[in-house]
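Comment thread on ticket #2218

A.B. wrote:
> Attaching the input chain for the structure job we discussed in standup.
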Amino acid sequence: MIIKNVARVLSPGGRGARLSILIFHRVLPRVDALFPQEQDARRFAEVLSWVGRWFQVMPLDEAVLRLRNETLPARAAAITFDDGYADNATHALPILLHHGMVATFFVATGFLDGGRMWNDSIIEAVRGCRGKVLDLRDVGLGIHPVESNPQRCIAIVALLRQIKYLEPARRREAVAFVKATVGVNLPEDLMMSSKQVIQLHQAGMQIGAHTCSHPILTRLPDAEALNEIKGSKLALESLLGDPVNLFAYPNGQPGKDYQAQHARMVQQAGFIGAVSTSPGAATRQIDVFQLPRFSPWDAGSFRYGVRMLANMLSVPATAV
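C.D. wrote:
> Ran it. Output below, let me know if you need it in another format.
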């Protein structure tokens, strides 16, 4: 009750409301030894039980519209997923339905039906590496011990950090080199099929756009960035036969991964709102095309709730 009561004080509804938007990526069937902090089904069900007690969870599109017209209810929250992983349909969906909650799934359309995101190629390559070290000095990516899961995790974090902000062509070359060096078959079923996206939509979930190829928008010419934004919207609307009104910026850090002109592109493309990965809660003063998102990482309910309350007082960053 403490968390719920404080949340009501911090977000009383109407003009004083604050919208808390949670962000997830995957819901695994069991704990991943490489990434034990990643959501698994048991953990996700536990988190939803807490959030459902403390907040009024609502569809994101409704929340955006009510934030704009100052009718958002007290303790409002929304749930989002990024990228379009298959486990969103196989594991997250049943848990959401059990709790009677609607989530918005932001899908990068270029990876549907057997595609794989570049970062997952790195993760799965390092996971499958059987040598003592992964030597990538020929492409300037260093040498990495990979004998144990902790070492593999350190190697993955280091490689993702080095590769993420490369120009798109160089990023593809670096990923291809890592895959060729390791020489293992990588999974082709990590991302959703078109049928699974339709399944989510028919189950009452919301589908949002997340570009086609998940680029860092600031690394693209404006024309290419606009094509990525519009292309994902059109592809999803063609698949679902319904409007797609919400957008998520890849990686999502304001001023680094997207700029103010990208927010204007999103608005011009016909979306009603967009989400970043800046922490904080949205108020009526926030740009609805730069809505903040945050998810605590604490294992216990009280600490998780306190971190959500603290986040409600954070001032979100925006691109200007």
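A.B. wrote:
> Thanks. Noting for the ticket: The chain is about 40% helix and 10% strand.
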